[in-house]
Amino acid sequence: MYRLGDPPDYEPPLEASAAAIAEREGRHPGEVVLDWLVEADGEAFMFSPLGNYHEHNHDVIREMLDHPQVTMPGASDGGAHCGLICDASFPTYLLTHWARDRSRGPEAARSSVSSNSRRRRPPMPTA
Fold first, then answer.
1. What does each C-alpha distance from 51 to 6, 61, 126 come to in angstroms?
2. Residue 81 above 70 pLDDT?
3. Cα 87 from Cα 91, distance rounded (Å)
């Protein structure tokens, strides 16, 4: 679990996790999280990645985005089966993070971010 921050950091390093901070400071991870939660008058947010983050970076996501036959970004149910978040900002984040702002590793190829999704767009249903 990580402090989300302002602006949000969706690719925090392992050393920024509650567990790593707790180990460095000789505390329990729960204490670190509780301290974070009371910051900003109790309005702080935590970030707990659900998948594709076991190496504490987005490298595996970049590999999927760059694969020409695997990825169709944004083809999901918008979080309907996820009880934690429905991140409606995904299209904007996809473009800004992967094509411009990523600082912890290589960006995805711009063609992967835009043309893959355009090329394999599912057909629109007919009335």
1. 22, 10, 34
2. no
3. 9
